[in-house]
């Protein structure tokens, strides 16, 4: 699967990138990303290769190579070539600008793109962004429109509805002779480059059409104008010819602010509020000069004076004031007529284009229908000529197919039967193996349990022998003492009676089970204690909760009358208390002896004392000494 994805990726890269050096750059970037896992560096390198909108699908081809932990961030950074188109509606109220400028046109071989959006303007509020591609304006396609036609179309109406799609790139031309190139409008998040090094930085800092602010010459001057409460600047401007682009002063109204600050015919506006106008188009100049009431203008005096002397300046101009000017009414009417003419040209061109597309589509459909009809006639003739041969071939093929199908069915049935038998045998062998393993484990556990009980019985016998030896030694000591008092009549004592000379009473007073008076030596014999630690524990009773222990032994077992804990269950009272462990001997329960009694009686005493009155159960236990368990392993 991974090899297939890699092969498809290489094929797409081969188709998109014809230059071998660009392909090498792409593969090097991917290898460096695999080593450093720096997503921002990868995006920065990819942008050097994806340098036009028609290559943006390469971002989608790279996405399967990005780890899951980076894919969410990758989707946020890279532009989406398949972004959904959206509608932006703008309404012009009064003379104020809508706050955006456009770039591109069919004369440049590109579409129309949003080059600048004034902050807090109606355009920004409506959702227009730098890097948006304009698809339609008021229902008209802009694919074959010039930049001038689009600007006039947007100025000829107070209502603009644009269908746009965000691309995130802008066409760039520093000078008229430069080759068209594309730049991204947003920097890569987390990259070391500053906003000034990107198209977005230029838009923010220069607020221009992509060219840097011009340098001031010796005669250039910069003026500040506040138009609040004034009728306007009081001058009209126009654009220069193709060989001398720019924005020039066409006339100055007497007594106006323009005259007051010294503007004259032919003066060139280099920039306004940081927006470069040296290569600005008509719409960008209007947006810059009418976008604010406070203007900082860089002026180059009489730079275009010869244009007016030779009468080669274009007729179209715009007045930068708000008062009506009767002397310019003829010029305004001509301007409106020109705008209407251009708008009508754009409408007619769109209608012609749509009509042409319709005619081409109808002609193509008609041609397709004729070809289909001709194909049907030829096919019918061929079918009539070869009908008999076809029937014979079909019959033979049908017979062969039925035979092959029958053979395939029999083969499948045989394979299915063998597979079922094999699976049944495997299941039976697995079941027998598990059953044998379980039986062996149970037998091993039983042998170990019997061996452990035998060892404990031997230990108990050794303890009894030590106790009898001790009693014999004590008796010999008593016989060696001088007998000053007449001895009582001799009575024969059996070995069992001698063993129980200090046998623990069946019931011990509760005062002896108090922590202050608890003395194991006074309650049990040394053989019973057998060198072990004797503890007294109190286990608090709880409703509907059992003691949770399993005991074995008693006088009818190999343990010689001992009651031994063989299991402490999770969740029981003993497990919660934590003082009773497997191997401990229970010697007394609430004052009732647990020595030399049957196992059933020991279990009955535990049940009775658990049900008896009182909030706790007092147990006297002999702690099991640590054992070397490797000595208890039995080899079979």
Short characterization:
This is USH1C protein. This protein is of the alpha+beta class and 636 residues long.
What does this structure look like?
This protein is α+β, with helices and mostly antiparallel strands and 636 residues long. It has 4 domains: 2-77, Paired amphipathic helix 2 (pah2 repeat); 86-334, Pdz3 Domain (Roll); 408-461; 504-632, Pdz3 Domain, CATH 2.30.42. 44% of the residues lie in helices and 18% in strands. The protein is built from 18 helices and 21 strands. The protein has helices at residues 2-16, 20-36, 39-49, 57-62, 68-77, 122-125, 147-155, 199-206, 257-260, 282-289, 305-309, 329-385, 387-480, 495-499, 520-523, 526-529, 573-577, 599-611; strands at 86-91, 100-105, 110-117, 132-137, 140-141, 159-166, 169-172, 181-184, 221-226, 232-239, 247-252, 268-272, 275-276, 294-300, 318-321, 534-540, 549-553, 563-568, 585-589, 592-593, 616-622. The strands form 5 sheets. Strands 9, 10, 11, 12, 13, 14 and 15 form a 7-stranded antiparallel sheet that branches. Strands 1, 2, 3, 4, 5 and 6 form a 6-stranded antiparallel sheet that branches. The protein has a 4-stranded antiparallel sheet with strand order 16-21-19-20. A hairpin with an 8-residue loop joins strand 7 and strand 8. It comes from Branchiostoma lanceolatum (Common lancelet). Residues 311-519 are annotated as: Disordered. It is found in: Cell projection. Residues 311-322, 329-374, 406-466, 509-519 have a biased composition (Basic and acidic residues).
């Amino acid at each position: 699967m991974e090899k297939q994805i890699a092969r498809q990726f290489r094929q797409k890269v081969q188709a998109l990138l014809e230059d071998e050096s660009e392909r090498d750059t792409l593969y090097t970037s991917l290898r460096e990303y695999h080593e450093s896992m720096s997503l921002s560096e990868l995006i920065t390198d990819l942008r050097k290769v994806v340098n036009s909108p028609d290559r943006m699908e390469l971002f989608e081809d790279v996405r399967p190579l990005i780890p899951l932990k980076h894919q969410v961030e990758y989707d946020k950074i890279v532009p989406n070539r398949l972004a959904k188109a959206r509608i932006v509606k703008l309404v012009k109220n009064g003379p104020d600008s809508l706050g955006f400028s456009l770039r591109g046109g069919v004369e440049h071989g590109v579409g129309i793109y949003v080059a600048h959006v004034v902050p807090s303007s109606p355009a920004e509020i409506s959702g227009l962004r730098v890097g948006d591609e304009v698809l339609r304006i008021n229902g008209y396609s802009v694919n074959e429109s010039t930049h001038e036609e689009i600007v006039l179309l947007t100025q000829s109406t107070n209502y603009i509805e644009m269908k746009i799609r965000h691309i995130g790139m802008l066409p760039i031309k520093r000078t008229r002779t430069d080759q068209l190139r594309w730049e991204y409008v947003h920097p890569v998040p987390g990259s070391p480059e500053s906003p000034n090094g990107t198209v977005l930085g230029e838009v923010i800092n220069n607020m221009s059409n992509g060219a840097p602010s011009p340098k001031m010459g010796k005669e250039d001057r910069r003026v500040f104008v506040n138009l609040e409460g004034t009728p306007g600047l009081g001058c009209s401007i126009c654009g220069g010819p193709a060989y001398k682009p720019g924005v020039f002063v066409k006339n100055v109204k007497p007594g106006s602010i323009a005259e007051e600050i010294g503007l004259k015919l032919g003066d060139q506006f280099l920039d306004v509020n940081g927006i470069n106008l040296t290569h600005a188009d008509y719409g960008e100049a209007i947006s810059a000069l009418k976008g604010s009431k406070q203007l900082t203008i860089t002026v180059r005096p009489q730079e275009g004076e010869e244009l007016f002397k030779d009468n080669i300046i274009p007729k179209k101009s715009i007045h930068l004031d708000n008062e009506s000017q009767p002397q310019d009414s003829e010029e305004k009417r001509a301007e409106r007529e020109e705008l209407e003419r251009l708008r009508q040209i754009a409408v007619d061109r769109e209608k012609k284009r749509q009509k042409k597309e319709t005619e081409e589509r109808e002609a193509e459909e008609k041609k397709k229908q004729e070809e289909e009809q001709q194909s049907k006639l030829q096919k019918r003739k061929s079918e009539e000529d070869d009908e008999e041969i076809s029937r014979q071939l079909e019959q033979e093929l049908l017979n062969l197919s039925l035979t092959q199908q029958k053979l395939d069915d029999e083969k499948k049935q045989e394979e299915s039967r063998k597979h079922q038998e094999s699976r049944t045998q495997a299941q039976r062998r697995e079941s027998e193996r598990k059953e044998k393993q379980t039986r062996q484990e149970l037998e091993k556990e039983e042998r170990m349990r019997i061996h452990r009980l035998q060892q404990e019985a031997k230990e108990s016998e050794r303890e009894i022998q030590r106790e009898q030896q001790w009693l014999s030694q004590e008796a010999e000591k008593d016989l060696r003492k001088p007998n000053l008092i007449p001895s009582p009549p001799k009575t024969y004592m059996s070995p069992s009676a001698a063993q129980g000379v200090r046998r623990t009473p069946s019931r011990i007073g509760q005062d002896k089970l108090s922590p202050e008076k608890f003395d194991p030596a006074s309650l049990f014999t040394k053989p019973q204690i057998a060198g072990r630690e004797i503890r007294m524990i109190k286990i608090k009773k709880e409703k509907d909760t059992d003691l949770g222990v399993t005991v074995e032994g008693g006088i009818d077992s190999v343990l010689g009358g001992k009651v031994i804990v063989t299991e402490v269950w999770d969740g029981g009272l003993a497990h919660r208390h934590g003082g009773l462990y497997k191997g401990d001997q229970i010697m007394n329960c609430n004052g009732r002896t647990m020595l030399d009694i049957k196992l059933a009686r020991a279990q009955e005493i535990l049940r009775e004392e658990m049900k008896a009155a009182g909030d706790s159960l007092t147990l006297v236990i002999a702690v099991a000494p640590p054992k070397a368990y490797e000595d208890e392993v039995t080899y079979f």
